[in-house]
Specification:
Order of helices and strands: HEHEHEHEHEHEHEHHHEEEEEEEHHEH
Bound molecules: nicotinamide-adenine-dinucleotide
Shape: globular
Radius of gyration: 22 Å
CATH class of the largest domain: Alpha Beta
Number of helices: 13
Strand content: 15-25%
Helix content: 25-40%
Structural class: alpha/beta
CATH architecture of the largest domain: 2-Layer Sandwich
């Protein structure tokens, strides 16, 4: 156990009082006091969701070793193959910081509990499954007194957003640190740009634009479920295709730009109206796709001051690819992300055209801070080891909600307000805390193998 003796009375008082508060809460009876890890104590990490990002997050976590020892001790996934691949990949370069024997590698919908049970209070869990499971895993992490790193989005609907906000508050009461994988917030160029914009260098922001348009990636599209796999496991595996699991490609792919534009504006949009549709539903070899996604989205977000943020998303081959974001103010314009979700350099121009001769400022960042995925981990570990306040849940939920607001506007063909998405009663996948491999899937295909899709103007209060 780490060094309790280093802590002053006020700290013990804090733990006592937060313990009392938690005892009266939904987490009654399971409060574990956590004492913060000082510089030289080993932080243990468990990974829940051993896919691409989860494995990448472990690499980032282990690379914080300059701040003190850190090691991976447990892994959990619902597919053994994914866990095995992740373990093998990580072992190649990071074996010295891994201690994950077979009996600490868990498979199944309850694997997250077993992996977290391997940790002690004050250790860290990485939650990198599809977002639908986030609140379930975060609830247990708080019960166990663990710090968390959770990937984005953190929610896909109103009811789970309210739950996550409450859980985030619970985590703060227990002095747990929580990082959310909206890495733009840890991009040094965007941080510098935000400071300048908030200081008025662009004047009043009157328009923002964001684009993520490229060919189909991830599980954007899905063919009918093959035999030999359950509906549930098919949907969990291909989560970008199913709105309950991920918010679809809109939430999964577009949240970063939506998030950093809200940050730059220093406000969240209050409403959205949108267009969207699906042009192509055949694979190149003629198979009909049955997923729930649109392949184009054009969303107009409105802020309380009446200004707009236009976001265009497209998953289509053969069209112009644009993946960047911009801001226009009364004194000029800015390139927020030059390429990708938050790729530098960010820059400010004194006119509305990004020509070199009008350049006022361009970001520069040293190699040690050039990777926002690494920065977000350095920042989280610094907060844990230094016992500084650190909880990104609220803004992570807000970014998730604003993303869902635009998605719902496109899917229903209605104007959707922030209050409507927050207070919506459509929990898309209730009961995920009790799910087993034998459970029914949250959405089922019709006799033709097709899943219900959004029908703007016809389905107005539900997205499918
Ligand atoms: N911040 C970023 O730039 C970024 C980039 C990629 C992905 N992500 C996010 O990370 C998350 C995972 O995405 P990915 O690309 O790694 O997907 P992935 O499919 O590669 O990995 C997800 C893993 O979670 C496992 N899983 C699913 N349900 C589970 C459950 N209930 N319990 C345990 N394991 C479960 C899957 O089997 C899979 O191995 C998503 O929320 C995604 O949006 C973020």
């Amino acid at each position: 156990m780490n060094n309790a003796h280093e802590h002053a009375t006020s700290r013990r008082e804090f733990i006592k009082s937060t313990g009392r508060a938690a005892a009266a809460s939904a987490l009654a009876g399971v409060t574990l006091p956590y004492v913060h890890a000082a510089e030289n104590s080993t932080l243990q990490v468990a990974l829940v969701g051993c896919g691409g990002r989860g494995t990448g997050a472990v690499v980032n976590a282990l690379a914080t070793r300059q701040q003190g020892p850190i090691k991976l001790v447990a892994m959990a996934d619902v597919f053994k193959g994914r866990l095995d691949d992740s373990y093998a990949n990580l072992s190649k370069n990071h074996g010295a910081q891994m201690d994950v024997p077979p009996d600490r590698r868990f498979v199944g919908f309850d694997a997250y509990k077993k992996a977290m049970d391997c940790l002690k209070a004050g250790d860290i869990v990485i939650c990198a499954t599809p977002p639908a499971f986030r609140w379930v895993h975060f609830t247990y992490a708080i019960q166990k007194g663990l710090h968390s790193f959770m990937e984005k989005p953190v929610t896909v609907d109103g009811p789970t957003s309210k739950r996550m906000i409450a859980l985030g508050e619970e985590a703060t009461k227990k002095n747990l640190k929580v990082g959310i994988g909206l890495m733009s917030r840890h991009s040094r160029p965007l941080q510098e740009l935000a400071k300048r914009v908030h200081n008025g260098e662009l004047g009043e922001i009157i328009l923002q634009r964001g684009y993520r348009m490229h060919g189909p990636v991830g599980f954007f599209a899905s063919p009918p479920k093959p035999a030999g796999v359950s509906h549930l496991m098919y949907q969990v595996q291909r989560f970008h295709s199913f709105i309950w699991a991920s918010g679809g490609n809109y939430s999964d792919f577009y949240i970063h730009i939506i998030d950093h534009q809200g940050w730059m504006k220093n406000a969240w949009p209050v409403k959205a109206q949108a267009l969207g549709g699906r042009h192509y539903r055949q694979s190149p070899d003629g198979v009909t796709y049955v997923d729930q996604n649109f392949d184009v989205y054009a969303v107009e977000y409105t802020y309380a001051d009446g200004t707009k943020f236009d976001f265009d998303g497209r998953c289509m081959t053969g069209c112009a690819d644009i993946y960047s974001s911009y801001m226009h103010g009364t004194k000029g314009m800015a390139i927020v992300s030059k390429s990708g979700d938050c790729g530098g350099p960010s820059s400010i121009f004194k006119s509305q055209t990004p020509r070199r001769s009008d350049l006022v400022w361009e970001s520069k960042v040293g190699p040690a801070e050039g990777d926002p995925y690494q920065n977000e981990w350095n920042d989280l570990i610094e907060a844990i080891r230094g016992d500084k306040p650190y909880n990104e849940v609220k803004r992570g939920v807000e970014a998730s909600l604003v993303t869902s607001m635009g998605r719902m506007a496109a899917h229903t063909g209605q104007e959707i307000t922030y209050d409507e998405i927050l207070n919506g009663d459509h929990e898309m996948a209730p009961g995920l805390d009790k799910i087993t491999e034998a459970s029914d899937a949250p959405v089922m295909p019709g006799p033709d193998g097709k899943y219900p899709v959004p029908e703007p103007g016809r389905k107005r209060t539900r997205e499918y």
